Amino acid sequence: MSRVTGEWLRKFRRERRVLARVRRAAWRLEQAERERDWSLAAARGEKVSVRKVAEVAGLSPTRVHQLTKNADLDALDAELGQLRVAGWPAPEDPDGSDDEELSGRASIAERLHDEVDWLRQCAEWLDHLETKPYPPAANLRPEADFPDTCTVPVHIARIAAILRRIAFDIDELARARRVDDLHAAQVGDDPRAERRRRLAEPDLNYAEFCDRTGTPWRSTQQGELAWTAYQAERRRRGETDEDPFRHGRP
Predict the structure, then answer these.
(1) pTM summary value
(2) Helices marked H in 176-238 — which ranges?
């Protein structure tokens, strides 16, 4: 093979791969727009206001109305079924729970999808910190604990810690062949502890709690009060279900 022919063949193969990439991206865009139309129509079917739908979708209310006015939800459902067969991810179940990831996943792909959702959440928190004068908030307790909650502000330090946690988990997920092979990234048996792990929240330490809250503890009487306050905070965070009574200091 001559040098000219070899160079031409290399360019031809490269161009073919580039065009394949464009073709694949165009297909994904088409399917994403199809799922967007389905989700808009479904939201309107649930009587969600056009204003709220438009805000989340990044569209004008007029555009949302145009896309949903004559939408055939049954036809869109059928098209979406074809996408599922092709491997397109299923949409969220409105009757589901944000805590579904805390009960474990059957495959590595599902775990990776969870981490993608956490990355999106981190991006939303960063956008909030950039545009709002107050920090966003996160609940340390699972949704299933409602009405019990433990809301904490989300600052840059927490987002950075969560991103490091995601990086460590994804690194292990990338090397594992099965969910059963996971160690540090394995979903814990306790949904509350797993929720805190996902939020990069360590278990509450007694000495750190006293220092952070300025709670005196050195005398016997102060120690009793401090331990009770510490246990009450642990209960609020979902670390224990016990009443905040002193059973011996750590």
Answers:
(1) 0.63
(2) 191-198, 206-213, 220-237
